[in-house]
Each structure stands twice: as C-alpha cells, then as structure tokens.
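Before surveying the methods themselves, it helps to consider a single example record, giving the amino acid sequence and backbone structure tokens:
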Amino acid sequence: MATQAQKQQPPHLHLAELTAAQFLDIWQHFDSDGNGYIEGHELEKFLQELEKTRRGPGGAGTTQAISKETLKEFMAKFDENSDGKIEMSELAQFLPTEENFLLCFRQYVGSSTEFMAAWRKYDTDRSGYIESNELKGFLSDLLKKANRHYDDKKLNEYTETILKMFDLNGDGKLGLSEMARLLPVKENFLLKFEAFKLTPEQFNALFTFYDKDGNGSIDEQELDALLKDLCQKSKLDVSASGRAGYKKSIMALSDGGKLYRTELEIVLCQDPSV
C-alpha cells in the first residue's frame, strides 16, 4: 500500500509513453481542487514537473520556477479557448494518438446537442444511466468512427478509465451529469443546471404543472416556459439565446418532439433512480 508521502508525489510525465490510465493519474493529481481545470498554482506545478521530466535524470536542479515566457508559450499552444486555464480535453493533447479517446470523443461528440443525442442512443434501457456494457458499446462505436484500431483489452481499459474519471459516486455507472464531464467545459450546459437540481417531489409538481394537456409529455414550447421560470426563480442569468441552446440540447433526448417524464428527470433531478 502506498504511503502518504508516495501519494503526494506527482506522477512522472513521460508524455510520449502515456496511456489513458496514466493520463487519469496525472489529471487527478494536478487538478487538486477537482474543479475541472488546471489553473494558477496547479498549472505552475504541472509545468515544473514537465520541465523536470524533459531535463531527465541527469538534469540540473530539482524544481525550478517556471518563467513567464514558458507559461505563455504553453498556454498559447494548449489553451484553445484562451480562458487562462487548461481543461481536461485540452491537456489530453499530450496523449499519443492511439490512446487519445478523450480527443476522439471531443471530435465526434463535441457539442451538448450531439452529446444528448448520443446519450439517448446508448442509454438503451432508459435507466437514466450509462452502465459499463453500454459505455463499452459507446466507446467501440466512437473508435470505429474515428478509424482507430483497438482490441478487447484496450477497449476494456478505456471503459474502466472513463468510469474511474467520471463515476463520482463509485456505483459503476455514469449518470448524465457525470458523463457530461467528457464535454469541453463550455459545452457542458448541465453545470449551469446544478443551481436548480430538484427533488423528485419538486420535479413531479413541476412536470404536472407544465404538462398542460396531461398526456405525460411536454413539447418544445412548454419546455421553453419551464426553463425560463426555473432560471428566474434560481436567479440564474441566462440570455434568451443561451436558454434556446439548453432547450435544443434537452430536446435531443425527446421522442418525436415530445419530452417524457423520465427523459426530463435525468436532466433536472439529482438522482433519477430515487
């Protein structure tokens, strides 16, 4: 068993040899506050370790301060959205091509609407979760789309790594908000929805109110009214165009333009199984 001192040691950044699992170790170490970014002191520590690795065992010194020029150069190369922070999908560019299923995901399911459509396809039992067998099917199709070669052993490793990365409660399956962490942060509209996660009782009352005709589903117009009211009540500052984007993403879960109770529940409730 690793000692506390060993646990605090940063993983070595042999970037050319990284596997997906090793990438996870690196990310979890340097994203110490778990906010989905490496920024500030976390980024400085990451670059210090990177420079140390590049110098090799015979390199002079141990840990040196990172120059402003080095930081600027690094950010210019990897900070794609120029927000001064590095998110997982940006850092994943370090992974060798054959290991980089994170960038593969970003390329083929890069928007929240595409993500929700993929969720609907792969949550085959409509449980509100992507379970390990469903996740494996999802990753398999994703790799085929990208024309990436893989074997069963590698597919199992990718599946296990995704679960380790995003299964926050350790139940062996991914809820919608957990799976959405695969998206670039700016596309993850569900992060906004954390402001008004509902209890099952609150959700039932809300759905009944907006299901005006009582047919067990709500349409696009009813969803628009629901989202507008939720944003106002939660004092969430969202523009009309932003709300339209949320609506479009959620409607990707719908069946023929009708959003049923279980489909909206996985977006607005903390735990759809309750």
Summary: The two ends are 36 Å apart (CA to CA). The domain at 15-56+66-95 is CATH 1.10.238.10 (Recoverin; domain 1). The first strand starts at residue 37 and ends at 38.
